[in-house]
Specification:
Nuclear Transport Factor 2, Chain: A, six-stranded mixed beta sheet, 2 helices
Length: 118
């Protein structure tokens, strides 16, 4: 299952994070999932991406590393984001790591840590 889960994360980054097709968020997550241990849903993920797009232009996430777990039930993503701040036109760059857990082919948990832009 790990190859499918890795592709699922690649599709999430390209379809939702990079192209801004935010309404497709629900295709990637279970109806209720955990985000850093807290209950969440696809709408929460959509709202987070919408807030990023309100603050930044030319938002682009680059997959730096993508590792499936040995058991095939989780995928770790290390990413780099680049953008331009809408407020002042300055470039922004930040990075982070997400660990995605899967259930029935969809993301059921996300554990995230990132270094916000300066």
């Amino acid at each position: 299952m790990s190859d499918e889960h890795v592709q699922h994360i690649r599709d999430l980054v390209e379809t939702v994070w990079n192209t801004g097709e935010l309404l497709k968020s629900d295709q990637f997550f279970t109806s209720n999932f955990l985000f850093n241990g807290l209950a969440a849903n696809a709408n929460d993920a959509l709202q987070y991406q919408a807030r990023l797009r309100q603050a930044f232009d030319e938002l682009r996430f680059t997959i730096e590393d993508l590792f499936p777990s040995a058991d095939g039930e989780k995928v770790t993503l290390r990413w780099l984001a680049t953008a331009t701040r809408k407020a002042d036109g300055r470039p922004a760059e930040w990075y982070g790591t997400h660990v995605f857990y899967f259930s029935n082919g969809q993301i059921s948990q996300v554990w995230s840590q990132n270094h916000p832009p300066d």
